[in-house]
Amino acid sequence: MLLDRKQGKAAAVAKSLEDEGYEALGLETDVRDTPQVEQALQATLDRFGQVDILVNNAAGVRQTPFIKLDTDKWRRQIETNFGALFTPTEVISREMVRAGRGGNILNITSIEGLRAAPLFAAYAACKAGMVSLTRTLAIELSDHDIRVNCLAPDIIDTPGINFFSEGQQGFTTNEAFERYIPLKRVGTPEEFASAAIFLCSKMASYITGVTLSVDGGTFAASGWSRSPSREWTLVHPHSAPAVAE
């Protein structure tokens, strides 16, 4: 079951899956709206009979200095990034508890929820809240055999990567990524999906309440990057950041 608030987008992805031999259904749904999510749940039960896994992957981000964030902008960010997590989690977890079969809830956070994120204060705060809520729900729902985990991506090759445009800040995209990411490349959607499949599978049956970074090592590197000579350098006040030279 695929849910998306954009007209026809979920249906188009469902059609592509059906063309490959899978059974799929796509619905136009605003996951911040409780009645719409409840309708989507009922459609899921009618079509598939049960709900075993929930993946919360709705989000939106805008680059804005904190001092320019007015109350309306702040609340819109919270509604988009945290409301889109709360509503489906509330509705689906109740169904999982009612059904009594256990289940998995996977929240897509971001490494920006694990570190400082200048110009993305509201977004990062929501993502940090997602990490905290994941831990709490992992404990609360454990009595019902429902596991709750997080994935924290950094730069994955999706349309959102267009933010890092070619030549931005005086360097080429590939050069910047090679110096910023320890594994020296952008992650693929397939690599990220593999981590999601693992956490929702029986291979991870004893894992709950964790946040797994899928970022090529960028969070582990925190503050370190490759110099132009490709040596690891700790960025400090007396040296310009390697990716901005």
Provide structural commentary:
The chain has a single domain (31-244), classed as 3-Layer(aba) Sandwich (Rossmann fold). 40% of the residues lie in helices and 14% in strands. It has seven helices and eight strands. Strand 1 (2-4), helix 1 and strand 2 form a beta-alpha-beta unit. The N and C termini lie far apart (46 Å). Mean pLDDT is 88; it is low at 165-172 and 236-245.
Please write out the topology.
Elements (H helix, E strand, L loop, with lengths): L1 E3 L4 H11 L6 E3 L5 H15 L4 E4 L14 H29 L3 E6 L12 H20 L5 E8 L19 H8 L8 H12 L10 E4 L3 H4 L2 E3 L5 E3 L11
Parallel strand pairs: 1-2, 3-4, 4-5, 5-6
Antiparallel strand pairs: 7-8
Describe the structure using short key phrases.
245 residues, alpha/beta, Rossmann fold, 4-stranded parallel β-sheet, two-stranded parallel sheet, NAD(P)-dependent dehydrogenase (Short-subunit alcohol dehydrogenase family), SDR_fam
Quaternary organization = single chain
Tell me about the largest β-sheet.
4 strands, parallel
User: What is the assigned CATH homologous superfamily?
Assistant: NAD(P)-binding Rossmann-like Domain
Q: Report the portion of residues in β strands.
A: 5-15%
Question: What order do the strands of the largest sheet run in, or round the barrel if closed?
Answer: 3-4-5-6
Mean pLDDT: 88
DSSP E strands, number: 8
What is the CATH topology? Rossmann fold
- The secondary structure category is alpha/beta
Give the helix tally.
7
Helix amount: 40-55%
Tell me, briefly, the overall form: globular
Radius of gyration: 20 Å
The CATH architecture designation is 3-Layer(aba) Sandwich
What gap, in angstroms, lies between the N and C termini?
Answer: 46 Å
Give the topology string: H per helix, E per strand.
EHEHEHEHEHHEHEE
CATH class categorisation: Alpha Beta
* Poorly predicted runs: 165-172, 236-245
Number of domains: 1
Family: Belongs to the short-chain dehydrogenases/reductases (SDR) family.
Protein name: NAD(P)-dependent dehydrogenase (Short-subunit alcohol dehydrogenase family)
InterPro entries: NAD(P)-bd_dom_sf, Sc_DH/Rdtase_CS, SDR_fam
Keywords: Oxidoreductase
